[in-house]
Structure formats: C-alpha cells, structure tokens
Amino acid sequence: MPPNKLKLASKVKKLSTSLKIDQIATGVNADINGKSLPLETLEAVSKKNATMEKAITKSKANLRNLRPRTAVDNRDEEPEEPKKESKLDKSGKKRKLKNVVDLEMMKEELKQLEDPPNTIEEKRLCENRLGYEFFDVPAEELAKKLLGKILVRKLDNGTLLKGKIVETESYLGGEDRASASYQYRVSAANIATYMPPGTIYIYLTYGMYHCLSISSKGEGSVALIRALSPIEGADLMAEFRNAKLKNTKTYKLHELSNGPSKFCIAFGLTRDHNKYSVCDWRGMWVEDNPENENIQIVSCPRIGIDGSGPEWALKPMRYYILGEKSVSKSNKNAEAAFAEQG
After folding, report:
1. Contacts 24+ apart (CB under 8 A), 54-59
2. Is pTM beyond 0.85 here?
C-alpha cells in the first residue's frame, strides 16, 4: 500500500472526526433528544482540534477529485492561479503536476449535514435512538449488531416508516478489494465512509439505484444494510416502489425491502441524504427491538463482488437472520454449516 494514500486516508478520517467534535463543542449537537453527550466525547475536542489545526495549516494533499462534478464552480469569480511548470519523468517526457489543494478545501466536504430534531414531539419520537457508541465499532461487528434492530425513517410530512434489519454486509476499507475506499481512495463519492461512525453513505449502483451503508470505526469502513422486514408504513413503501418502476404491482410484505436498492426506494432514500448521521438526524435513526428477539445469524460470502477476486469474494462478510423471509438471498451451504455447528 503506498504510504501516501494511507497517510491521506488517515488524515481525512481525523479531520472528519475533528470537525464533528468541533460542532459538538460549539453547541451544535451539545444536547440530542434531551440527553447530554458523554463527557469523554467532549474532552476529546481540544486534543483532536489542536492536532488537526496544525495539520491544516502545514499540510497539503492531492484532492482534485474531492470536489463533486456537479458542484457549482466559481472559478470565474476568483483570480486564475499561475500554471505550474511541468517536470520531466524518467523517460525524459514532460509530465503534468497534479493539482494540490489545501486541506481547508476538504473541510466543506467533510462537514456532517445537520438537521436534528427540534420540537418536543420530534425529540420524543426518536428518544430511543442508538447513539454514537453503538456505531463506533469495527465494520464486521457493526454489521452483526445491526441485525434485529429497528430502522425508523421519518419523512418530511411526518409519516413514519419502520423495518427490522435482517441482512447486512461489512466492508473493511483500505484492505478490502470490494470496498469503495479500497487502497484508501478518497473522492467526493466515498467521502462519507471516512466520516464519524454513524454517518450515512449512499451511493449509486448500475447508475440508477441507491444503496445505503453506515460508517463504522476504521478508515473507509462501513456496514451495508441489505434488507429489512417491514413493520410500519408498508402501503407507502409499495407506492414508492411502484412510482420508481412506473407500474402498479402488488407486493407481498417480504418483497418490499428485500434488497439494498429495494430498501432505499421503499424508504425514500437517495443521495440527497448522504452525510447525515443516524446519531442525530431527525429523518432516520436506529432503535433497539422492543421484542428483544433471540436471533440466529448466518455468515456467508457477500453478493455481487466477484470482480474483487476470490480471496475477498469468498470471505463470510454477509450476515442475515436465519428464517427471515425478507432476506434477499439465502445461502444453503452456509445454513447447513451453521446447523452442524449448532
């Protein structure tokens, strides 16, 4: 692994955490749902901010691709930078120097989107949400911990959609060939994977469908939510599914969100919701299951990542609840092995 990539990824992760803690320190999130944040979280403010302020003033990084292609470009309003002279490579040919951008530019991309609950009713609705500590664990652990939990989506009109998480996958970041952040790549598209645990990372697949992951502990590491079993709002989920596909299909309950893209459509989630945090966004959160079920977890290879090579394609990093109809695809071999162990 090139050390410069690892160093950049680490710097991005630290800066992102620093920015989030800075928001907390200045009162943006000093109180969530009427509950004060842990003292140790607030104590980390001065240490992380001091470290990153020095890095910001001294360091520069190649982040040309960090700016979204669709962003409004105000270059015409700014003085044009002088062109850099090209250097010669080993073959004697001229090579272009990469644009170098100050880390200050990265601050805007790494800022957590803020839309916390404001009214008493909104705070009451999400008073049982799981906090930062729940998500601040390695991706594999988080993907398993999410199983059986209740994901709640609050739409702009106040309607609630609920589902039990029944299937997840873990992606480990820099070392994981199937990860968006493999080799510690940093771009506008995957920047949310470097943000504090609990950050929503939504990306496009096949150029038209969305998938949602939640960032975990570790640089570029996330847990992908693959499937939910609907609990509340099934009729509206079906409307969303039909509106996307422009048809009038009648869905069985377990068909509404039995896949990562189906889940995003059914719950009205798009790239517009990227970089919010399930720890404080009023639009979505995760709760404990009040039924406190005793679930059995099957581990098997992830789906659709054959291009990452056999080593990573075969790792048992997909997890689902045994016997749940809403699981996108069961793995009979893994279930047989699970039965033998048990």
Report:
1. 55/11, 55/14, 55/15, 55/103, 56/15, 56/102, 56/103, 56/104, 56/107, 59/11, 59/103
2. no
